[in-house]
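Q: Could you fold this chain for me?
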Amino acid sequence: MVLVGYFSAKQKDFETLMASAAIDLATRGARVVVQIVQRRGVSDGGVQKMGLAYSSRTLLSYGKVREVAQACDQANAEAVIFVSSLTERQQRTLTEMLGRPAVSLSDILAAD
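A: Sure. Below is the predicted structure, expressed as structure tokens.
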């Protein structure tokens, strides 16, 4: 599985959240092979773009979606788990773009 986190610059403990998510998945029998993080508003350019809406279709930037897709292909990952909650539209769009199921961690945890 590929684990993806989307965090604002204000979220200082994002590494801890990613590690916790990986542990939660491991206790459910999943093997996280790649972790990818997109932080918004960290760079000078990113800070200037904070007033702009993020992609409501994909949650991530287009470049980050390409990076996730490449990581999935290289790792032969079966699914992509997002630490952030996804809308149904985001889930459908990302599943189509990535060529494998894209689901929220909260959906997996709620299924138990």
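A (continued): The beta strands are 2-8, 34-40, 80-82, 102-104.
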